Amino acid sequence: MSPTILSCVNLKGGVGKTAIAVNFAAYCARQKLKTLLVDLDPQTNATFSCIDIDEWESHAATNGTVADLLGVRRHATADGAERPLESIVVRDVFDDEDLHLIPSHLDLFTVDLDLASTTARETRLRRALLPIVDDYDVVVCDCPPNLTIPTQNALALSTHYVVPISPDYLSGIGVGLLLKRVKKLADELEHQIEHVGIVVSRVGRPALHREQTVTAVRQQFKGLVLDQQISERVAVSESAAEKRSIYTHSDRVSAQEFSTMSADLCKRLGLV
């Protein structure tokens, strides 16, 4: 059976995308679904939510990162031999044997320039993961806040995508544009991808026209907007800094919000 592959996408940063990607992946693993988290954002926030900097530096130098899979860095040993794909995968994230990670790398900041003259740039990740992707039940891709090559590769790989938004005006009005651009990309690649939902996140931080924005998004997109909102709580940043999922934090309210949101996403994805 082919895996369910979900991309977390938004054109705007600061919408809680990484927290949703990391903690949804952790939730799936806690449900005994074999889960792979792929960090495609050069800011590496998802990576550093799972492993510390020293571990990342060692792993990147010895085993490689997602940048190798996209062809930005050469995935080879010192003597020129190609490393096995499985070596890139960090296993047992959060001490959970069902959660694995493909870390990101800062080299992705220049990936569009590096791959400017290459063919089939948008499907490099899909082709690279072909030998291992069916080992997983769920793959979660954390994308940068744009539609550059890393995001295009995630969408070309994915069966579904979710759009996290924060309750501010610019985040709200960008949803329609994002959906059109994703559809255009999917059509050009002749690839089917389903929009599975919108998650309202980081609720509670200062934002102009917050209530009007959330109301407008719910009216425009109706059943696509998940009922459960994710609050702006210090527990989210603390759990990331401590390299653990929200579900082991003492803030039970935050843990419950992510759990309810993740359960809804799983239902929409047909995982339960």
Describe this structure in words.
With 272 residues, the protein is α/β, with parallel strands linked by helices. 41% of the residues lie in helices and 12% in strands. It has a six-stranded parallel beta sheet, with helices on both faces. Strand 5 (160-165), helix 8 and strand 6 (194-200) form a beta-alpha-beta unit. Helix 1 packs across helix 11.
Keywords:
272 residues, alpha/beta
Q: Kindly provide the radius of gyration, computed on alpha-carbon positions and rounded to a whole number of angstroms.
A: 18 Å
Largest sheet: 6 strands, parallel
Shape: globular
Low-confidence stretches: none
Instruction: Find the count of extended strands (DSSP E, 2+ residues).
Output: 6
SSE sequence, one letter per element: EHEHHHEHHEHEHEHHH
Distance between the termini: 15 Å
- Overall average pLDDT: 92
How are the strands ordered across the major sheet?
A: 3-2-4-1-5-6
Helical/strand content category: alpha/beta
Classify the helix fraction into a percent range. 40-55%
Strand content: 5-15%
Number of helices: 11
